[in-house]
Design brief:
The structure is a homodimer. By secondary structure, the first copy, chain A, is of the alpha/beta class. The first copy, chain A, is built from 11 helices and 13 strands. In chain A, helix 5 packs antiparallel against helix 8 and helix 6 crosses helix 7.
Chain lengths: ~325, ~325
């Protein structure tokens, strides 16, 4: 049986026809039209679904279901999107009802970070595990939890906002308006801020030359210069990793996953990042001397995780 | 059908015969004998169960099951207790297998704080709710979660150690050896430390006279003197409540419960504590302006919560 998975981003909608083995057999990408308001972007999403089916030689009717991941806060049971900051006019909108009217097969909806952990658990780095925590490190920090083989979303499906759990009481201001959230320390946005501060404090740092050549300061700047032994860069990376390891440790203490996955652009730092995090983790996990800690691994499906996970939202 | 619930503490074992309506029809209390090693305390637990049945005019055989709450880290599926700091010799012991040999009906085991949230959800302050987070504030901070009507214990049943989640990176040293845990700020032990510090800093504080009369400094000292308007006591209470509200906010962000319960001795501060926490909570919960916050309430079953919850471990 084929399914359709749709990953709605602020700029593009990616839709893929996914088979039972979690392979994307065909995928398309169309503009979200997020600025054009709710009704228009809903039409774009339906269009993306139809296009993906069509190009795979099918009709939407031929598919078992359509699953859709949304970058925002939503209740998967009612299908109401409470807030999706990157999509204009998406506040308290009955998204599933609206899109279901345009599509002839059952529609399921979920948060995009939740779709990613489902995809990685079914077909990626956490395949075969029943308990998984995934953090997607990007502009923000997205979180997803699989517990006992089921997606864990909390009451009304509005929980599991792991990036906004506490890491530092009265700490750095977060994009959400609160202080000291995990996201305020562990997002790439925060890493870049920390990098810029370190560069300002040390004009002799190799990060200046690296950034000039690259044309920008981004999540790579400190990491790449740390690999070259630049002292200021090493400090930025060590500091960042300690906060991230503490955040992961706190989540392990709560959820006791079999494996922790790191997704998002920063996961391209691969073993350089994972080795540091795995070395730090035991000191931040309750009773790690007695019960050990799970491994931290890089998510492997990249952007496809969200599409595959969305396709299987009905199953988890 | 009657069940037996057993709440094992460091000093006493409380065993109660519980009916279908979650009423304890008879209860007994016997010494734990926790210093005498694992085998002896297991015998004491079996004896407590037999005694409670006997005094209710029954035999253990007449009961549907025996549920046992243990103050420690354990895997409810395997029945292995990894660690129970207040019970001597209880490290990596096959507790359920051992006690099952002594009792003729099915035995279920769980963590004591988890039993408490089950009891309160079935018969106490969270009755009728499907999603509940409970913190028991005492020497430490115990945590329990009911999600979608089921007890949530994390992978291998070793999660939900809410007292050891992060609240302050590199913060106060916790009894567990880590730094900045919720317990290091929100336990009564920590409140007493904060009270003593404030007393030392302000010899004119009314807390000195209050403690002298009471014969000790305990969790009540700052709260009672705060009610009388003592400036130093007010500061201790405000500081304590801010940390506790931030901890609760972080848990709400993760679990989105319908209600949050506070148990343990400090919950005797009733509305004085709950009103402060409820007023502070919105600033510590993600998207509280859009989706509100759950109420924080006092647990109502006291010590019986653990006994009742243990009796129904098989059901949740």
């Amino acid at each position: 049986m084929l399914r359709l998975g749709v990953d709605v981003g602020g700029t593009f909608i990616k839709a893929g026809v996914v088979d039972e083995s979690c392979t994307i057999v065909h995928k398309v990408s169309v503009p979200t039209g997020g600025d054009a308001g709710f009704d228009t972007s809903v039409q774009h999403i339906a269009h993306a679904a139809e296009l993906a089916a069509q190009e795979a030689g099918l009709q939407v009717n031929d598919l078992a279901s359509v699953g859709i991941g949304i970058p925002g806060l939503l209740n998967p049971k009612t299908g109401v999107v409470v807030s999706a900051p990157n999509l204009s006019g998406w506040q308290n909108v009955p998204f599933r009802d609206a899109i279901q009217k345009l599509l002839p097969v059952p529609v399921y909806v979920g948060n995009d970070a939740n779709c990613a952990v489902v995809g990685e658990t079914l077909a990626g780095a956490a395949k075969g595990y029943d308990n998984v925590v995934m953090l997607t490190l990007g502009t923000g920090v997205g979180g997803g939890i699989v517990a006992d083989g089921k997606l864990f979303v909390g009451g009304q499906g509005l929980g599991a906002e792991l990036g906004h759990m506490a890491l530092q009481m009265d700490g750095a201001v977060c994009g959400c308006g609160m202080k000291g959230c995990i996201e305020a320390y562990c997002s790439v946005t925060s890493l870049v801020k920390q990098t810029l501060r370190a560069m300002e404090a040390d004009p002799s740092s190799a990060m200046h030359g690296y950034a000039k050549e690259a044309g920008l300061v981004d999540g790579r700047t400190a990491f790449e210069c740390s690999k070259m032994g630049d002292r200021a860069a090493v400090e930025v990376v060590e500091h960042y990793c300690r906060y991230l390891a503490n955040a992961i440790g706190s989540l392990v203490t709560a959820f006791r996953p079999d494996v922790v996955l790191i997704g998002g652009g920063l996961s391209n730092q691969r073993e350089y990042l994972m080795d540091k995090l795995n070395a730090l983790l035991p000191r931040y996990v309750f009773a790690s001397d007695l019960i050990g800690v799970p491994p931290i691994r890089r998510a492997t499906l990249g952007n496809d995780a969200g599409t595959i996970g969305a396709a299987f939202l009905d199953r988890v």
